[in-house]
Amino acid sequence: MQAVEINSGPNPKASVIWLHGLGADGHDFEPIVPELELDQPVRFVFPHAPVRAVTLNQGMRMRAWYDILQFGPGPEDETGVRASQKLVEEMIAAEKARGIGSIVLAGFSQGGAIVLQTALRHRERLAGVLALSTYLPLHKTLEAERSLENREVPIFMAHGQYDDIIPLARAEQSRQFLERLGYKLQWHTYPMPHSVCPEEIAHISAFVRGIL
After folding, report:
1. How sure is the predictor about 48, in pLDDT bands with cuts at 50, 70 and 90?
2. Is 194 marked active-site?
């Protein structure tokens, strides 16, 4: 799996695997590393999604974690979602093989959907989850498939109040669904569109420091 890899200091004991959104690549969140001002060395892995045709964008080929069939809720590309889940599982295994003990999964938009899909089903305890400007995919299968190991995983979920790509209401539905299943969420909204803002970065920094 091709990825941008950054160590924020020598001998990191924790890794953050951070997935970009539709049409971006692993370089998208590279600038965030110094902005987080973490107080211990952390290894960041920013993978590039596979290139595929995206139905919503007239079949144009671009980096995408799964196909998007229509704007808003509706039929989902379950095959694509589960294939990307497998890719993230492989990345977690690779970090473990390096001797990394604490692993955080982070993702924006489509990347955030894959992070929620993977983390809540993963069979080994994760340190935490960052789900930014996103929603929960394949929610109907979660209750049956979720792992005991990550029922208590700390989840940071954040969304823009003016998001016109994934409306706030869709994220709220995902949040409520997760809370009904007993997951512990830190929920934030910000006066922004489908993006990331400085206040959010400060909150992400505090969350990551808290779990590591």
Report:
1. very high
2. yes
